[in-house]
Amino acid sequence: MTNLHWSLPVARWSTWPVAASAAPDMGFIEPIVRRRLSSLSRIALKVAHDCAAGRDSVRVLFASRHGELRRTTEILRSISAGEPVSPTSFSLSVLNAMSGVFGIARGDRSVAGALSAGAETLGYALLEAYAQYATQPSEPVLLVYADEPADPAYGAIEDEVNGGALAILLDASAAAGRLSCRTVSAGALASSDANTDRTSTGMAAGALAPAVFATQSEALLYCLTARTAAQWRRGFVTWEWNWHDGQV
User: Fold this and answer.
1) Domains in the chain, ordered, with CATH?
2) What share of the chain is helix, strand, coil (3-state, %, to 5)?
3) Average of pLDDT values for 163-187?
4) According to a count of CB atoms within 10 Å of the terminal CB, is the N or C end of the chain lower?
């Protein structure tokens, strides 16, 4: 994998915790639509709504490793049992269902897309959001990541996700700070550490190594919350995120 390094202007971000004790307030979605939404779409729409507040239009990128896999699994079970499948359930089972519902609810015809890339979904979604924003920085980009563990029917999943949702609004004109992202191969990381060169991550020489987390979402959320470097590793590649205050 080629080593990459990019930086995102973060105007605001919102998260829905894994262990939330209450359901999200979905008053911004019409009741007839709200009743049909899965728990995954609900938390995704909630953080998206919070991040896009006050913006007439935003480009949306929705990312999820499994997406509406649980709904799809229910459909497959219905087919296997010879039962009819609800057209509504089918239409809401696709990966970009949330972005479609969000655009309709807002009356926003801006470009919307969806992305899935296995255990590295969130990392590549950040890269895609950067590419979209860099192409047209005059229009904000809203990245929405939401996921939940796969149905037990699929067995053990390598590098399985946690449940939860996270939204990040990219807009340099109102940036509270910048999120730096990088991928480093094992050899390059060892060389960098040996030279104590922390320039690319904003770390001072001699600083403690970044905390390492089991999932990308945990690492990124820690970075945004603690405003310090965090890592996620898979194979010979390390993904690292760091926060820089102010409009750098």
Assistant:
1) 12-173 (3.40.47.10), 179-245 (no CATH)
2) 35, 25, 40
3) 93
4) N
